[in-house]
Amino acid sequence: MTMNLETLSYEQARKAKDARFDGRFFVAVKSTGIFCRPICPAPSPKEINVEYYPLAQLAMQAGYRPCLRCRPDSAPCSFAWKGVDTTVERAVKLIEAHPNLNLIEICEKLGVTDRYLRVLFSQKLGIAPKKYRLYGQLLFAKQLLHQTSLSVEEVAQASGFSSARRLQSNLKTALKLTPSQIRQGSVNKDDESTSSVEKKAADASLHLQISYRIPYDWPHLRDFLAARAIEGVESVTSESYSKVFRLGQCKGSFTATHNQHKNRFDVDLKIDDLSAIQNVVAEIRRILDCNTDPIIIDRSLKSTGVPVEKIRQGLRIPGVWDPFEAGCRAILGQQISVKAAINLVTLLCQELGEKWQDRIIFPTAEAIAASSLSFLKMPDKRRDCLRNFAEFNVRHPNPSQLEDWLSIKGIGPWTVAYAKMRGKSNPDIWLDSDLIIKKQIQRYSLDPSAAAAWRSYLTFQLWSMA
Predict the structure, then answer these.
(1) Residues 383-409, buried b or exposed e (16+ Cβ, 10 A)?
(2) Do the Cβ atoms of 252 and 274 come closer than 8 Å?
(3) How many C-beta atoms surround the C-beta of residue 179 within 10 A?
């Protein structure tokens, strides 16, 4: 599947080993049967021997196996599917963010039949949804085999396979590799310090890498998170972000250390349920916004009229672990300063959060709903709003539309939009009622509509200019 319209730019990016294109496409070499990232350190093949694929899964479907040197499984996720079809976009997001859901459940969430979804995937992506998921699982399993010393059985569990035998069979069929071959190929002096699992007491600390496309504005994301960090739940240093979390029944913590020289985060992850690793890694990627294509964002910001010299190169959306936490933060922050709001959120966590390894997990909806919240020094109406919000989330733990929150007294469109932007990392949230945003639009005579599809980034850009 050669991308004819993009071949010239792909060829130039490949030969230059341009990290800005990492994950945007993959290079398949006909003579070796291997596909690579455009930043692969191996000598560049002749163009006549090359094919380009927008997705790693498509290269695998064509019979190519992933390179053991540049590790396509570690590349930033691609937006190659974006814009092809709304249903396909939603399906891909569900497949990648919820590996525990089977395709029938995904179809139910989408409101389509499995036959219709197969037709859409075939027409828009050139691959069946079942194969897309399988290849994604295999790439994740390959990443774990490279970067950790988990047993093959544990890797199978973590990547969604029922057994080590099933994982090995699929690896051999689809990747033409065995777990031992992958691990032999993972020897890399440059990464030796982060390519194993260290055992500390009874806990296993997994060390993984999460890549991103350059540029990446780490100082902006770091400072935004630091100003809103919840004591005991989160911590931020000059080069890292750490958080304790709950995902379903799974509990854990992670520390993501920014590695600017290698365009990635080195992640130390502690988790009490291996089967949740893929979901957890997906959430960490989202919080750090590692899947964004900064070239597209930069182009969108320029098109609105933002002065070029003021554009933050590599801007990212600082995520929140889930929409419920984002909603609680927004409610407690109504009509007060950021510092005062974080003091309230910290108090909420200290009083109602669950202790986990000397740290605190953000409170559950059940814990907040069952509390009088009398320890929070704020107006009764806002306290009632928070409790009603928690009760709503107890009854509806996974609302399909956050707009359903509008039925709760005290919650308006701004709170819903904020939760979508930070709790779901929706890239096109426009907080046009925000006072700072209004002033910036007027000051620079901006056209926000020009950034449609990426207005969340415009929001953070304008906030940063205040």
Answers:
(1) bebbbbbbbbbeeeeeeeebeebeebe
(2) no
(3) 20
Give Cβ neighbours of residue 412 (< 8 Å, ≥ 6 apart): 406
CB distance 384 to 372 below 8 Å: no
Amino acid in position 301: L
- Average pLDDT of the residues in 201-224: 86
List, for residues 326-362, the tens digit of each pLDDT value.
999 999 999 899 999 999 999 999 999 999 999 999 9
pTM listed for this prediction: 0.89
Question: 18 falls in which pLDDT band (50, 70, 90)?
Answer: confident
pLDDT at 99: 75
d(CA 387, CA 367): 10
pLDDT value at residue 20: 87
Q: Which residues contact 51 (CB under 8 A, 6 or more apart)?
A: 1, 2, 27, 28, 30, 59, 62
Q: What is the Cα–Cα distance from 229 to 411, expressed in whole angstroms?
A: 23
Taken as a whole, the chain contains a residue count of 466
Q: How many CA atoms lie within 13 A of 120 on its CB side?
A: 20
Give residue 13's pLDDT. 87
Question: For strand 34-36 and strand 65-66, is the pairing parallel, antiparallel, or unpaired?
Answer: parallel
pLDDT digits (tens, 9 = 90+) for 107-136: 998 899 999 999 999 998 999 999 999 999
Helix (H), strand (E), coil (C) string for the chain: CCCHHHHHHHHHHHHHCCHHHECCEEEEECCCCEEECCCCCCCCCCHHHEEEECCHHHHHHCCCEECCCCCHHHCCCCCCCCCCCHHHHHHHHHHHHCCCCCHHHHHHHHCCCHHHHHHHHHHHCCCCHHHHHHHHHHHHHHHHHHHCCCCHHHHHHHCCCCCHHHHHHHHHHHHCCCHHHHHHCCCCHHHHHHCCCEEECCEEEEEEEEECCCCCCHHHHHHHHHHCCCECCEEECCCEEEEEEEECCEEEEEEEEEEHHHCEEEEEEEECCHHHHHHHHHHHHHHCCCCCCHHHHHHHHHHCCCCHHHCCCCCCCCCCCCHHHHHHHHHHCCCCCHHHHHHHHHHHHHHHCEEECCEEECCCHHHHHCCCCCCCCCCHHHHHHHHHHHHHHHHCCCCCCHHHHHHCCCCCHHHHHHHHHHHCCCCCCCCCCCHHHHHHHHHHCCCHHHHCCCHHHHHHHHHHCC
